[in-house]
Amino acid sequence: TKSLRDTLKEVIPAKQEQLKKLKTEHSQAVLGEVKVENVIGGMRGLKAMLWEASVLDPIEGIRFHGLSIPDCQKVLPPAPGGKEIIPESMLWLLLTGQVPTPEQTAELSRELAEKGELPKFVEELIDSFPKSLHPMTQLGMAVAALNHDSSFQAAYERGMKKSEYWTHTLEDSINLLARLPALAARIYRNVYKPGQEFPAINKDLDLVGNYSNLLGYGDNHSLTEYLRLYIALHGDHEGGNASAHTAHLVGSTLSDPYLSYSAALFALAGPLHGLANQEVLRWQLAMQKELGDNITHEQIKEYLWKTLKSGQVVPGYGHGVLRNPDPRFIALQEFCETRPELKSSPIIDLVNKTFQVAPDVLKEHGKTKNPYPNVDATSGCVLYHYGLTEFKYYTVIFGVSRALGALTQLVWARALGLPLERPKSLSMDVIEKLIKSS
Ligand code: NMX
Ligand code: MLT
User: Fold this and answer.
1) Residue 84 and residue 69: Cα distance in Å, rounded?
2) CA-CA 20 to 30 A from 94: which of 132, 233, 319, 434?
3) Helical H runs in 241-326?
4) Average pLDDT of the chain?
5) Residue 236 annotated to the active site
6) Does ligand 2 have an atom closer than 6 angstroms to the CB of 379?
């Protein structure tokens, strides 16, 4: 079977050629116009970034190299004994644009398991953090510290050729992905289950099989399967989302993958982005506490209005690009539908009931351009049902996942020789002058 590196070596020249053609033949073609609303509106809608692995359609949702989520669920190999997509097969697809065979997936799982141990000083660094330090802060700091062993940085210091950038970026990316489970699990254990023994990494298990084991949930097959799906699905959401974009921006300075992804994690840690899954659970539990059991649709409606009237956003609803229910939300809901224990779960029932009411309330409220749920509306609630109840940890799991797409793009950015990202900014005075003179 062809290895990941050989597959990449085969697919890179065609992409390089495609970019060369775009540069030489079409560099002056117009893709859209820049309006004042784009500049003052967080660059919404501006087509200004190259991102290879996935494209987000406002109505259909995400496609990974053209494959929708249901397509991926049909063709991407699961873990042995499992049914759900696993991050390894998603990573292979994101990196190469090809669907891996079960053998190729297993080979990648093994490589990741073999490289999964943490350097001693990183373990000590994590152990030295106060338990009260938010798990996302711990994750970002520990990922940055891994750059101690960056292959890219060492090769750059030695004076490598540009054509070698991508291979070192790939090595760092694989090492980082391999170490994320041990790193993220150590944070969980230290904060929430101190004093327990860490199991060793099992070289015969897939990445999430090991992650679940290290977290202490290895016996819970349903949770492990859910984590596989969750981590595969959150892997990439085109380039403009705040975490992916941060990794790309920082990477464009030739910072190594560890530093680039560490920066991305701190963008993911914001409540309008990845932290929303923690916020959703907090909000749903507060609703449950206030309203008790057997909550009616009418009560949820009132609760939603109370949230909105107090000036807060409804967490898990709305999106910068999507204008329909997020297909990742749908896929996670479908997972719940297949499991009797989730079908009868009070927290999942509350998520479902909220979904039945919230879009109409948000439409009536009239502010958000998208009154539908995003992936965060349910992702944390399933973890909660399965006993992983520490919701400040939820965004860490998102952070383990988003590495798939952000690191893929770093490899492609180096393979394609993409330049330093440096958009032109304008002051309000200059904008007004430009408007007057136009
Ligand atoms: N509840 C109440 N108001 C909302 C919501 C919501 N869920 N979503 C958007 N709005 C408001 C928004 O605050 C803005 O108000 P204002 O004009 O006063 O500033 C107005 O509607 C227009 O916003 P949009 O253009 O629809 O949304 P935008 O692209 O600016 O923001 C989000 C997208 C995702 C930041 C926004 O919908 C939101 O805050 N949602 C809740 C938080 C959340 O679920 N984030 C997770 C996103 C997914 N992820 O994992 O990253
Ligand atoms: C994501 O997965 O990054 C979120 O849905 C936010 C986005 O795409 O803007």
Assistant:
1) 12
2) 319
3) 242-251, 257-268, 276-291, 297-309
4) 97
5) no
6) no
